[in-house]
Automatic annotation (TrEMBL):
One term of GO molecular function: cysteine-type deubiquitinase activity
Record-linked PROSITE patterns: JOSEPHIN, UIM
Keywords assigned by UniProt, alphabetized: Cytoplasm, Hydrolase, Nucleus, Protease, Repeat, Thiol protease, Transcription, Transcription regulation, Ubl conjugation pathway
Top-rank taxon, per record: Eukaryota
Active site, renumbered: C21, C21 (nucleophile), H118 (proton acceptor), H118, N133
Organism: Caenorhabditis nigoni
GO cellular component: cytoplasm; nucleolus
Entry protein name: Ataxin-3 homolog
Functional description taken from the UniProt entry: Acts as a chain editing deubiquitinating enzyme that binds and cleaves 'Lys-48'-linked polyubiquitin chains, with a preference for chains containing four or more ubiquitin molecules thereby modulating protein degradation by the ubiquitin-proteasome pathway. Probably by regulating the IGF-1-insulin-like pathway, regulates lifespan. Regulates germline DNA double-strand-break repair and apoptosis in response to DNA damage by recruiting E4 ubiquitin-protein ligase ufd-2 to DNA repair foci. Interacts with key regulators of transcription and represses transcription.
Gene name of the record: Cni-atx-3
Reaction catalysed by this enzyme: Thiol-dependent hydrolysis of ester, thioester, amide, peptide and isopeptide bonds formed by the C-terminal Gly of ubiquitin (a 76-residue protein attached to proteins as an intracellular targeting signal)
Sequence ranges assigned to domain Josephin in this UniProt record: 8-179
Length: 316
């Protein structure tokens, strides 16, 4: 397939090897395989020697480098030195001189980012932005809105964000994507917005400290199936109804399978935040399945009480 058929394939991309993310980030920024581990290692050693000559006895002991490590990580100083050859500079986005880019990130051509010794790049080709991250499978197309939110989130998470200053070397990808922009992939119709039931289970999972990597128990799967079936039946027979009504009926269906859970009409006089949907207030112990069911029963009672209070007619 030629780049004109798939413009994103024209972008030069390197997959992660060892801890050589700095090398990969430089080459993807410049869109060519220009730097090797040996090149950057030599630059790091030169900088170590310069620091030793300047600092003398205050410099680090011989053999220890602040500019590289054995795994292949290189410091920002090494990356900056490598880019000097191309008349490019990296300036921290928090620098007052970068206020223009902080206010409108789309005016830049590229960013180099770092968090916990991992380097990657956001770069513009034509009028489109892409994330070039060596731990990913390939370039990722980003919308303009996403770039703004992305950088805002990165800053909040203490990423180091550097604005690339200077003129980047022109590349094949610049030319192809300028003439033939990358078309975003259509959204998978099977991936629908989570409904009320899904959000409920998500909140339960977070409440219990669950993870997507941990398989659900058979009990949780049975409950999920019961709720999904009730929701599917509801959606096929009716086109209206609140999320709260649907959720309440789904939960009631799952609870009715267990005769040990009493069905009572008594409810608290005041609707308060239910612990199952909020942050944990326990000492960190995961509640038992029995306690989870009781929490769900209480949640249902509160929903029913809320509905009754909203439907009571005014006295004449």
């Amino acid at each position: 397939m030629s780049p004109s058929d798939d413009p994103i394939s024209s972008i030069f991309f390197e997959r992660q090897q060892a801890a050589l993310c700095a090398q990969h980030a430089l080459n993807m920024l410049l869109q060519d395989s220009l730097f090797t581990y040996e090149n950057l290692r030599d630059l790091a050693r030169q900088m170590d020697q310069m620091e030793h000559d300047i600092l003398g006895n205050n410099a680090n002991a011989v053999g220890r480098s602040e500019n590289m490590n054995d795994s292949g990580f290189f410091s920002i100083q090494v990356i900056e030195k490598a880019l000097e050859t191309f008349d490019l500079k990296l300036i921290n986005m928090e620098n007052p001189a970068m206020a223009e880019f902080k206010a409108n990130p789309l005016t830049a051509r590229a960013y180099v980012l770092n968090l916990r010794e991992h380097w990657f790049v956001l770069r513009k080709f034509g009028n489109q932005w892409f994330e070039l991250n060596s731990v990913k499978n390939g370039p990722k197309l980003l919308t303009d809105t996403y770039v703004k939110e992305y950088l805002h989130q990165f800053a909040a998470e203490n990423y180091s964000i550097f604005v690339v200053q200077g003129i980047l070397p022109n590349s094949e990808a610049d030319d192809f994507i300028t003439l033939c922009p990358v078309v975003p992939k259509p959204i998978d119709s099977d991936k629908k917005e989570p409904n009320m039931v899904q959000k409920f289970f998500n909140s339960v999972g977070k409440r219990l400290g669950g993870s997507l990597e941990v398989p659900d128990s058979q009990e949780d799967r049975d409950l999920a199936i019961a709720m999904a079936m009730s929701m599917e039946s509801k959606e096929s027979s009716e086109s209206s109804g609140s999320d709260e009504d649907q959720l309440a009926k789904a939960i009631q269906m799952s609870l009715s399978q267990d005769p040990n859970i009493p069905s009572t009409s008594t409810a608290p006089s005041e609707l308060t935040e239910t612990p199952i949907l909020g942050p944990s207030t326990s000492s960190g112990n995961i509640p038992s399945a029995e306690q989870q069911r009781r929490d769900r029963a209480k949640f249902l009672e509160k929903l029913e009480e809320k509905k009754k209070s909203q439907n009571v007619p005014e006295e004449k």
